[in-house]
Design brief:
alpha/beta; ABC transporter transmembrane region fold; Rossmann fold; 2 domains; four-stranded antiparallel β-sheet; 19 helices; elongated
Length: 571
């Protein structure tokens, strides 16, 4: 993928912001079109006729133009940020994703990716910002200055056109050489980062083998090569000064030197000559300098760095797949069919060929030793992660064919670490239920035992301040209880509650409509369920607490630990 294609693809998604950037850039360039005309008019109609006030009044137009430009720039920058900041985020995501995929696939670690992820991505971000900010100004300024010059003094415009065209041709011939040398500098930086990273990883072995000098020499040679490449780029960059001289300074000198003769023959006034000099000295010359700096430094770096990022982010594309047609589930029965899951291609599966049927309105508890995969199973059931193999069906329909909004509306997973956001208690409680009356809130508060908490905070409209872990869990539980979810999965969501409050909450959810799945951390939670599923070695077996204790020695030990006292972390 080329750099231009990479950047174009990322910018394409922000067309609206780019349109606003273009519009305000046009307004920003309008003062350049009138600057020479205002100066010429101020001289011819004011100062040269000894009408100082009139001359100053025309020059005041330059101040108005400056105010217009300042207002345009002020309105421009928010839209510029709307283009640049998301672009950086997408580049970081692309590099990280590609690097992780390659690592999971077993490819050697790419330590130079650190340079890409930090320096190069930030470079692209800065360069895109600088390019958008300046190229649009240069283009508008040069266009406006030439239009104004042709209107004011056609003879001066004809004098200036040949050197400007010659400068552009010289620059076009110079850019390929600059690109090659800029690319060499970038490769040198990556080699230094890669060698230094390898040496750091193997630092203990390097010291043990007494190879410090050899490693230092290797890295030093890369640094020296980078310095040579940088000096070569500096020499080539110096030639850009000729472009500015030919395209910006020579036209201005020609107009100033020849102005008495050609201007007089062309019927141009002294004000016209001064106006022409204004277009050239105050607009065209700075614009040519900015053009060289933008394309010769920023634009060139953007092309080279973008090329490296595009190369680094290339990953063999999967064959195109037609997305399956979305279907509506018929009912809320949950089923896992031969579901397996592993966190990497070479990792052992946490869940292996698992089959599970959860009928509508069921109440079951999932128990098992810590780290066995209970939370992973809860994530798979809720659609948070997809199984590596196998399928999850809701109402007889694969979750891959169910619209995501339907899944979010009907399945609720509540983890141990409850999330409470800044705002009022009412906003936190009603976040998932849409429109809830005070009567609905009162019902949830009384059912789940939140009245004391509501009173302590000062009512539903009170702003939430400091909360304990148990209070956060109660608010999150009430939020889910008020939601329309037909399937609720509590993944140790009552771990910070005392035994009495936990019993109230779980019994309330058991009476609530729909299916309840509890990842149990206490024996009391398991005994309240209709079914107890023991998870062991990635498989599930159904039974009671006592039957599992008789058939599984690890589970028997876990039950004994439960019976000794409350689980660790309870309030």
């Amino acid at each position: 993928m080329s750099a231009s294609r990479l950047v174009s693809r990322l910018l394409y998604r922000r067309q609206r912001a780019l349109v606003h950037v273009l519009l305000w850039s046009t307004v920003d360039g309008l003062p350049a079109m009138f600057s020479g005309l205002l100066v010429a008019t101020a001289l011819d109609r004011g100062f040269l006729r000894h009408r100082t006030v009139v001359g100053l009044a025309w020059l005041a137009g330059l101040g108005v133009a400056a105010l217009v430009r300042a207002a345009a720039v002020r309105r421009l920058f928010p839209w510029l940020a709307a283009v640049v900041e998301p672009l950086r985020d997408e580049l970081v995501t692309s590099i990280v994703t590609t690097t992780l995929r390659k690592a999971v696939a077993g490819e050697p670690a790419d330590l130079a990716s650190v340079a890409r992820l930090t320096g190069q991505v930030e470079t692209v971000r800065d360069l895109v910002s600088a390019t958008l900010r300046t190229v649009r100004q240069v283009a508008v300024t040069i266009t406006a200055a030439l239009i104004g010059l042709f209107v004011l003094a056609p003879a001066a415009a004809l004098i200036c056109l040949p050197p400007v065209l010659a400068a552009l041709a010289l620059y076009a011939a110079l850019l390929p050489r600059l690109a090659r040398r800029e690319y060499a500098v970038l490769l040198a930086e990556e080699r230094i980062a890669g060698d230094a990273g390898s040496a750091l990883v193997a630092l203990r072995d390097v010291v043990a083998c007494g190879a410090e000098g050899r490693v230092a020499a290797t890295i030093g040679s890369q640094v020296d090569a980078g310095a040579v490449a940088a000096r070569s780029l500096a020499r080539a960059s110096g030639a850009q000064r000729m472009v500015v001289a030919v395209g910006g300074e020579v036209p201005l000198l020609m107009v100033l030197a020849l102005s008495p003769w050609p201007m007089h023959r062309a019927g141009l006034t002294a004000g016209d000559a001064a106006g022409a000099a204004t277009y050239l000295g105050a607009n065209l010359l700075p614009a040519m300098r900015t053009l060289v700096e933008t394309l010769g430094v920023w634009g060139l770096q953007l092309a080279i760095v973008g090329r490296r990022l595009a190369e680094a982010a290339v990953w063999p594309a999967d064959p195109p797949r037609v997305p399956p047609a979305l279907q509506r589930p018929t009912g809320y029965e949950l089923r896992l069919e031969h579901a397996s899951f592993a966190y990497g291609l070479r990792s052992d599966p946490i869940i292996h060929e698992l089959d599970l049927l959860v009928p509508e309105d069921d109440h079951l508890a999932i128990v098992g030793p810590s780290g066995i995969g209970k939370s992973t199973l809860a994530d798979i059931i809720s659609g948070g992660i997809a199984p590596t193999t196998g399928d999850v069906l809701l109402g007889g329909t694969s979750l891959t064919r169910v619209d995501s909004s339907t899944i979010r509306h009907n399945l609720a997973l509540l983890p141990q670490e409850a999330y409470v956001f800044a705002g009022s208690l009412r906003e936190n409680l009603t976040y998932l239920c849409g429109v809830c009356s005070d009567r609905d809130l009162d019902a949830a508060v009384e059912t789940l035992g939140l009245r004391q908490l509501v009173n302590r905070l000062g009512g539903y409209d009170a702003q939430i301040d400091s909360l304990s872990n148990g209070e956060r869990q109660l608010i999150a539980l009430a939020r889910v209880w008020l939601s329309p979810a037909r399937i609720v999965i509590l993944d140790e969501a009552t771990a910070h509650l005392d035994l009495a409050t936990e019993a109230v909450v779980e019994e309330a959810f058991a009476r609530r409509f729909g299916t309840l799945i509890v990842v149990a951390h206490r024996i009391s939670s398991a005994r309240r369920a209709r079914r107890v599923l023991l998870m062991e070695d990635g498989r599930l077996s159904s039974g009671s607490v006592e039957s599992h204790a008789r058939s599984s020695r690890p589970y028997e030990q876990m039950v004994r630990q439960w019976q000794l006292g409350p689980a660790i972390g309870s309030a």
